[in-house]
Amino acid sequence: MTDPTRPSLRAGLIGLGMMGRHHARNLRALEGVDLVAVADAYGDPHGAAPGYEVLPDVDALIDAGIDYAVVAVPTQFHKDVALRLAEAGVHTLVEKPLAFDISEAEEITAAYEEAGLVGAVGYIERYNPALQEMRRRIAEGQLGEIYQITTRRQGGFPARIADVGVVKDLATHDLDLTAWVAQSSYAQVAATSTRRSGREDEDMVSIAGRLASGTITNHLVNWLSPFKERVTVVTGENGALIGDTVNADLTFIANAEADTNHWDHMASFRGVSEGDAIRYALQRTEPLATEHEAFRDAVLGQGSNIVTMREGLHTVRTVEAVLESAREGTVVVPDPGPEA
């Protein structure tokens, strides 16, 4: 909860495109926050900020006197905008991915950490009620040992994308949420990608991986399916949790044979068979609204439920390993960075 006696935080938004328009809507409705300025060199094509003067650049946004900013410009501009905001002492939430490549992500992360600023990355899937509940249940041991995590993120090509392929735009969600749900980083990845829509960048990828914990992973991601699918399946010794983030549904299917103590002749074998299924009732709040609340609270020093820039940096490293693997046809170990 925000303090009603405290002055509202002054927020700024740069980028009013397909994602920026949703940020504008949430910032305008966010308790304890005033959206005081917006900026976009191309204006406001979606009418996301009626009544606001659309400023031309990040310097004009800073001059408006903001406490924090949301950056929703194309990925190729993240570094310049984020570094300028850090230089000005502005707390910043940058849309995913943090940066175009590892060196840019390292530079951004270092700038915010050295300045003592709150810096976060906009991985909206982490705030989906199904995945929030999934992570909580896994951490409490509902599944026991985790064996495998698989994700499917498929659909048609989004008109908003012009500067990156499906790995940096979509698969980055799966790489981030998998490491977060399992609380373990990637130890290796092996990927295959293709280009079928005539674009320069890849539009379909299949990624096999292994986490440091030993859990194996698999991700199918594309812009070529005539249906939308967003599914995460975590399989463990006690059963499986299935998260559908389109509908914010979470289902548990128990392994009916998880307890083998009653077996005499096969006591050493842990069998698997379909058990009871439970579909959990979840409070369905908009993930982007939850993300904004978490960042506001972090700026106020009242919480830490954000995707830090260092976490975003680790995901960029994994993304680059995936692209290298697909390009070279080899298994790649993600760069652990100098802090490892």
UniProtKB/TrEMBL annotation:
Residues 132-241 form the GFO/IDH/MocA-like oxidoreductase domain. It comes from the Bacteria. It holds the Pfam family GFO_IDH_MocA. The keyword Electron transport does not apply. Residues 10-123 form the Gfo/Idh/MocA-like oxidoreductase N-terminal domain. Keywords: NAD. This is Gfo/Idh/MocA family protein. It comes from Brachybacterium rhamnosum. The lineage of its organism: Bacteria, Bacillati, Actinomycetota, Actinomycetes, Micrococcales.
